[in-house]
Specification:
This protein is an alpha/beta fold and about 120 residues long. The protein is built from 5 helices and 7 strands. It has one domain: Response regulator (Rossmann fold), CATH 3.40.50.
Amino acid sequence: MSKILVADDDRVMLGLLKTLMELEGNEVVTATHAEDIVTKVRESQPALILMDYNLAGGNSMAALRELKADPDLKQIPILVASGMDREYECKQNGAEDFILKPFRPTELLERMRTLMTQSSWQTP
């Protein structure tokens, strides 16, 4: 079982993602505001972060940059999702992967498994 942080400001999407992750046996921590992501990551030390590009309070790129600049957190794999093609921008800011919405749940889970398998991050 892995701990996953899911950041999305759409309550319906957040609920669906949380349920999907829990059905796979994961523990889920959620965030709905961009400014809460880094704090929640520090508190929960997740194995993976799934964040929406657009969140309440702006986009998630500042949080992404802050996480990747932190020597204690930079190894946590980050998968960014968006309804617009923001892959280049997300990867330039440090995301390991990007997925375009709408996506199939099986595709999302496969990408998450791959990122966690390839990651050198060890949860404390």
